[in-house]
C-alpha cells in the first residue's frame, strides 16, 4: 500500500529534534511505501508566523536529507476553510456561542461542584435568533463550536458514543465523545483554530496516514467525527512517544539549544541527528546509520515505545564519533580539502585521525599538528633521550613500518621501553599525551617536521 503523509509545523520558531523526529517518521514511512511526503506550513497565525522560520524549516529538512514532494502553506487556503465551515453551519453542526472566558470558567466550576464533568453544556443552542441579535448588539462576537455526534435526537441528552481507531503506534484506541466538550473551531475574531484547517487539508491532499506526537491523541476522536461530518474517510492515525530533555521536560521551539540549526552549527552530522531522533525511545539499538536508506530499512513504528524518550545532547557526541569512525574517506574528502588539507593527504589523514575525533571540525586541529610548527612541553629528563631519538631517525621514504623500526632502534640504544619510551616521543611530535597511532601519524608529519620537534 502506498502512503501520503505530512509534516505540519508552524513557522513560529526553529524546529527542534523532537519536531525532526515527527518529520523523519513520516518521511521514512513514505519512503518504505514509495509514497509522498508533504510539508505543510501551518502559517495561519499571521502575527507569529515568519518567512525566515518557514525557510529555516525547509533548510533543516534538506540538511536531514528530507526532500518534500510537495510544499503547501495554509495561509493560501482560507477560502477552502471558509467553505468547509459554511458547510458545517448549514448542516447545523457548527453553532455560535457568546459566552466570555470568565462565564465559561464559572460554569465549569459550578459543574465540578455538582459532581459533573466540566464540559460545555450547549446552552448556546437554546438561544433564539432575537437573543443572538441582542448579544451581537451588545458588541459580543460569537465563537463557533462543532456539535459532537454524541446524542440520538436531543443534543441535551448525550449518550455514550465511542470513536475507535487502530493506532499505528498505540494499538486499539477508544474515546467516548460524551465525555468531551463541543470543540471551538472558530474564534471570536474569525480566525481558525488548528483543527478545521488541518482536517480540510488532510482531505484535499488525500492524506492516507497522519503520524504525529502523542500529545494529539486526545484530539483524534473529535477530528474523526469532523472528517465524517464533511463526508470524508479519516486517515490512519499513529501517535508516537515524545522526546523530553534529559531532566524530563518537554522540548520547545522557544528554546533554541536543541534546534536543528543549533545542532548543525555545533558540528553534528545530519545522520547522527537523524539516527538518534528516530531510534531513541524504541526497541531498536541506537546506532549511527550511514544513510537515510539504511535508516529507512531499520525504521518500524511498531518498535516505538509508549514511554517518553529522554534526549541527552551528550549522546550525540558518542554517536557522532562512531559515525565518523565508520565513514569512508571519499565521503568526507571535499570538506577536508576546504579546511586546507591537500588532496593527496586527505585519505591518509582521515584514516589516521577519524578514530580520535567527535566532529569533522576536529580534523583541522590534527592537520595543524601534522603540518605546522608546534611547541611541545618537554621535561628536562627527556631532552637527552629526544636528541638520541633524532640521531636514530630513519631516512625517508617513510611508511607504516617506520615507527616500529625507529622505536626498536631507540629501545636498543637507550634501554627505555613502554611509556618511558613512547610518551616523550608522542609529546614531542604532537604536543599531546594521547591521539592516533604514531605509526600512522609519523609519515604524515614527515622527517623535517619530526627533526624540528625533537631538537
Automatic annotation (TrEMBL):
Coiled coil: none annotated. Its main location: cytoplasm. It is found in: Cytoplasm. One of its GO terms (molecular function) is glutamate-tRNA ligase activity. A motif ('KMSKS' region) lies at residues 250-254. Keywords: Aminoacyl-tRNA synthetase, ATP-binding, Cytoplasm, Ligase, Nucleotide-binding, Protein biosynthesis. One of its GO terms (biological process) is glutamyl-tRNA aminoacylation. ATP binds at residue 253. It is an enzyme of class 6 (ligase). One of its GO terms (cellular component) is cytoplasm. A motif ('HIGH' region) lies at residues 9-19. Residues 4-317 form the Glutamyl/glutaminyl-tRNA synthetase class Ib catalytic domain. Residues 379-454 form the Aminoacyl-tRNA synthetase class I anticodon-binding domain. SUPFAM superfamilies: An anticodon-binding domain of class I aminoacyl-tRNA synthetases (SSF48163), Nucleotidylyl transferase (SSF52374). InterPro entries: aa-tRNA-synth_I_cd-bd, aa-tRNA-synth_I_codon-bd_sub2, aa-tRNA-synth_I_CS, aa_tRNA-synth_I_cd-bd_sf, Glu-tRNA-ligase_bac/mito, Glu/Gln-tRNA-synth, Glu/Gln-tRNA-synth_Ib_cat-dom, GluQ/Sye. Monomer. Catalyzes the attachment of glutamate to tRNA(Glu) in a two-step reaction: glutamate is first activated by ATP to form Glu-AMP and then transferred to the acceptor end of tRNA(Glu). This is Glutamate--tRNA ligase. It comes from Breoghania corrubedonensis. The gene is gltX.
Amino acid at each position: 500500500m502506498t502512503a501520503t503523509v505530512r509534516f505540519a509545523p508552524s513557522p513560529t520558531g526553529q524546529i527542534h529534534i523532537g519536531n525532526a523526529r515527527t518529520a523523519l517518521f513520516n518521511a521514512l514511512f513514505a519512503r518504505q511505501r514509495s509514497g509522498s511526503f508533504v510539508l505543510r506550513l501551518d502559517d495561519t497565525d499571521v502575527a507569529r508566523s515568519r518567512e525566515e522560520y518557514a525557510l529555516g524549516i525547509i533548510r533543516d529538512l534538506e540538511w536531514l536529507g528530507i526532500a518534500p514532494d510537495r510544499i503547501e502553506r495554509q495561509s493560501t487556503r482560507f477560502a477552502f476553510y471558509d467553505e468547509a465551515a459554511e458547510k458545517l453551519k448549514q448542516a447545523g453542526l457548527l453553532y455560535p456561542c457568546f459566552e466570555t472566558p470568565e462565564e465559561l470558567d464559572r460554569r465549569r466550576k459550578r459543574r465540578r461542584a455538582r459532581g459533573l464533568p466540566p464540559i460545555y453544556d450547549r446552552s448556546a443552542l437554546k438561544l433564539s435568533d432575537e437573543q443572538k441579535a441582542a448579544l451581537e448588539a451588545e458588541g459580543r462576537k460569537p465563537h463557533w463550536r462543532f456539535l459532537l455526534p454524541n446524542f440520538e435526537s436531543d443534543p441535551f441528552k448525550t449518550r455514550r458514543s465511542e470513536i475507535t481507531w487502530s493506532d499505528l503506534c498505540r494499538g486499539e484506541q477508544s474515546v467516548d465523545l460524551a465525555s468531551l466538550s463541543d470543540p471551538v473551531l472558530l474564534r471570536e475574531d474569525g480566525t481558525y483554530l488548528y483543527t478545521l484547517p488541518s482536517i480540510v487539508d488532510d482531505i484535499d491532499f488525500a492524506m492516507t496516514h497522519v503520524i504525529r506526537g502523542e500529545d494529539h491523541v486526545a484530539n483524534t476522536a473529535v477530528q474523526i467525527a469532523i472528517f465524517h461530518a464533511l463526508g470524508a474517510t479519516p486517515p490512519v492515525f499513529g501517535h508516537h512517544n515524545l522526546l523530553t530533555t534529559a531532566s524530563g521536560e518537554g522540548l520547545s521551539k522557544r528554546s533554541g539549544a536543541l534546534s536543528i540549526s543549533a545542532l548543525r552549527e555545533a558540528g553534528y552530522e545530519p545522520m547522527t541527528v537523524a539516527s538518534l531522533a528516530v531510534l531513541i525511545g524504541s526497541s531498536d539499538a541506537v546506532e549511527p546509520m550511514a544513510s537515510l536508506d539504511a535508516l529507512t530499512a531499520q525504521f518500524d513504528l511498531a518498535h516505538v515505545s509508549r514511554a517518553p524518550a529522554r534526549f541527552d545532547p551528550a549522546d550525540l557526541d558518542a554517536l557522532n564519533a562512531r559515525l565518523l569512525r565508520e565513514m569512508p574517506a571519499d565521503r568526507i574528502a571535499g570538506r577536508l580539502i576546504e579546511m586546507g588539507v591537500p588532496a593527496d593527504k586527505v585519505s591518509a589523514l582521515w584514516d589516521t585521525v577519524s578514530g580520535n575525533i567527535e566532529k569533522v571540525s576536529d580534523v583541522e586541529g590534527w592537520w595543524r599538528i601534522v603540518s605546522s610548527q608546534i611547541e611541545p612541553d618537554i621535561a628536562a629528563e627527556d631532552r637527552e633521550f629526544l636528541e638520541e631519538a633524532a640521531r636514530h631517525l630513519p631516512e625517508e621514504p617513510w611508511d607504516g613500518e617506520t615507527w616500529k623500526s625507529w622505536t626498536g632502534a631507540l629501545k636498543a640504544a637507550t634501554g627505555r621501553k613502554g611509556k618511558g619510551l613512547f610518551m616523550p616521543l608522542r609529546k614531542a611530535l604532537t604536543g599531546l599525551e594521547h591521539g592516533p597511532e604514531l605509526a600512522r601519524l609519523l609519515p604524515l608529519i614527515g622527517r623535517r617536521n619530526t627533526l624540528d620537534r625533537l631538537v
